[in-house]
Amino acid sequence: MGKKNKKPGKGKEKTEKKTAKAEEKRARRESKKVSEEDDIDAILRSIQKEEAKKKEVHVEENAPSPSPRSNCTLTINPQKETELILYGGEFYNGKKTFVYGDLYRYDVEKSEWKLISSPNSPPPRSAHQAVAWKSNIYIFGGEFTSPNQERFHHYKDFWTLDLKTNQWEQLLFKGCPTARSGHRMVLYKHKIILFGGFYDTLREVRYYNDLHIFDLDTLKWQEIKPTPGCMWPSARSGFQLFIFQDEVFLYGGYAKEVSTDKMAQRKELFIQICGLLILELGREQGSLLS
């Protein structure tokens, strides 16, 4: 028996559909390819190569004020309260994002900026945290964003800046927190307290509510876990953390959650968090933090 006659145009319609589907797949593959200017690994390698050329500390006196930026850190010099230390940050001009790794010192009395260039400096970053102790600034974490904000790299590195010499040193100790940005750090006596933050690579999103302590005398990290039944803050980023006497005050922040509606479509919800939480350092955790 011969084949039944096909309806006119049916084969052509099928071919067109297949071609369109193939084109759609190809376009998706192409869109996922990383352009040269958005290849974070390549950008960071290039920056590292330039950093390796620096052989000595250079201080530019009476430098122009820093460019516009957000998510930088500004820290009081513990050895000189009329001096502020500014590091890093980012700027979005409506088309591209620029991430900075520059270091400035500002004399409040003279209203003068100094721009510091040092060998072995940390890679550029924003949304990191910094605290000052004795004659050093300590920096942990942060993120680097590609110019089109399509790629993100979160740091888990720990650095110290010697304010006497303007020299950086990376601190390599076991037990440090995982890579993150948007966390908060405060200084309590001789310990750095770190809480929360987030990790977002677009493919994977995590918000944290872990508490870590770095002892500046013993140079050791320790994670403090909640005891059963105690109150504990939910995971969050972008909150405020403050020390007063033997208490840490935490307020606000935000988190992003993924949920599914009735149509099984993925939704991202930004949860704004409010409420004041207090961690008492001198009581239950006194033996760990005193």
TrEMBL record:
Q: Where is this region: Disordered?
A: 1-74
- Which domain of life, per UniProt? Eukaryota
Bias (Basic and acidic residues) occurs at 10-35, 47-61
Q: Which Gene3D superfamilies match?
A: Kelch-type beta propeller
Annotated PANTHER family: KELCH DOMAIN-CONTAINING PROTEIN, KELCH DOMAIN-CONTAINING PROTEIN 4
What name does UniProt use for this protein?
A: Kelch domain-containing protein 4
The species is: Vanilla planifolia (Vanilla)
